Amino acid sequence: MSLLLLEDDPAIADTVVFALQREGFTVEHRAWLAEARERLRETPAPELLILDIGLPDGHGLDLCRELRAGPLKALPVIVLSARSEEMDRVLGLELGADDYLAKPFSPRELVARVRALLRRAQAAPAVAAGFVVDGARVRLDGVLLNLTKLELGLLLKLLQAPQRIHSREVLLDAVWGTSADSGDRTVDTHIKTLRAKLREAAPTRDPIKTHRGMGYSLEP
Ligand code: CA
């Protein structure tokens, strides 16, 4: 199990490498964005990336965005940040990070996050339980859903990566496009009607999870 750590602070890097190696992981360490980009072009690719935000030659989240647009779009990424501000967290998740840890963190916490993320990534193809998609027709537990175009758009976007938290901005962009002059409320309103229809089809379940202040995901 080979992990790539991009971190320019030698003390943090040493601690992280030590903690992960002790748990049996192989860790490659790079301190510069350019070095990490180079490594990520080589094969075999690492199985997970631990990414610092503030780097000597740029912003770690730029790499995150690049990865999500390329062949490594499914590579699990944990972002490390010196700033614990909500904005960073939201921005990180929006740019495609899978998890986020604010410094200072305990090495044990990081190891736990790494394990959890690898488990999620290795679980059979991420399909949300009970959903079957056939073009524009979606069934939940066998019941054909009667959705509006916008509800369908939201659901399909969520189904692409069910366990990822989709921020309202990401959903707006995906479903309404850049021309939309609608706000977060628009997303919430349509999620609400979508949720009601899902509940009608599967009364015992509520597959859409709300993450306060962050966005929505689907139950695995
Ligand atoms: Ca740094």
From TrEMBL:
User: Upper lineage ranks?
Assistant: Bacteria, Pseudomonadati, Pseudomonadota, Betaproteobacteria, Burkholderiales
Annotated DNA-binding ranges? 118-220
Q: Which Gene3D superfamilies match?
A: 3.40.50.2300, 6.10.250.690, Winged helix-like DNA-binding domain superfamily/Winged helix DNA-binding domain
Q: Where does the Response regulatory domain lie?
A: 2-118
Protein origin, superkingdom: Bacteria
Modified sites of kind 4-aspartylphosphate? 52
Q: Provide the alphabetized UniProt keywords.
A: DNA-binding, Phosphoprotein
Residues of the OmpR/PhoB-type domain: 118-220
| Pfam annotation, one family | Response_reg
Official protein name in the record: Two-component system catabolic regulation response regulator CreB
Which NCBIfam families does the entry link to? Answer: PRK11083.1
* InterPro entries for this protein: CheY-like_superfamily (IPR011006), OmpR/PhoB-type_DNA-bd (IPR001867), Sig_transdc_resp-reg_C-effctor (IPR016032), Sig_transdc_resp-reg_receiver (IPR001789), WalR-like (IPR039420), WH-like_DNA-bd_sf (IPR036388)
Q: Specify the species.
A: Pelomonas aquatica
